[in-house]
Specification:
Mean pLDDT: 76
Number of helices: 5
Shape: elongated
Number of domains: 2
Order of helices and strands: HHEHHEH
Distance between the termini: 46 Å
Length: about 140
């Protein structure tokens, strides 16, 4: 599949007129399917927002040590949450800025993919480590 997309993209680049960057970008997006609707982004952003709140609350807990009680933040969990929250915030904020600057247009799927990956990581951590419940 990637080979087909790469070949099609190479063909588009070869055929693109000089100075036709907008046309080339639109053609590339058509070949790769590299665009998403604002509705798709809104659902992912809402999911991220809810998971971000849970992760942030978890990260505010004291770090787990030998004697600090039953409710604490495990460093292994923290190591997964921090990069996922940071990447998700960047992707969400950039997507929101894109749609404000380009209303009624499709958005870049690369940012959506980053946001979706953050959502998946946070969902996995929440399920695996039962972050929403006190231990």
């Amino acid at each position: 599949m990637h080979t087909i997309r790469a070949a099609a993209a190479a063909g588009l680049i070869a055929l693109a007129p000089m100075g036709g960057c907008a046309q080339l970008e639109n053609s590339w997006n058509a070949v790769t399917g590299a665009q998403v609707t604002i509705q798709t982004v809104s659902v992912a952003a809402s999911s991220f927002d809810a998971l971000e709140a849970t992760a942030t609350n978890y990260l505010r807990l004291p770090k787990c040590t030998g004697g600090n009680g039953p409710v604490c933040a495990d460093p292994a969990v923290t190591a997964k949450l921090v990069p996922a929250v940071r990447a998700g915030r960047i992707a969400r904020d950039n997507l929101e800025a894109f749609f404000q600057a380009h209303p009624d247009q499709l958005g870049p799927s690369g940012l959506y993919d980053a946001l979706a990956a953050s959502v998946a990581t946070l969902q996995s951590a929440e399920a695996q480590f039962n972050m929403g419940a006190a231990k």
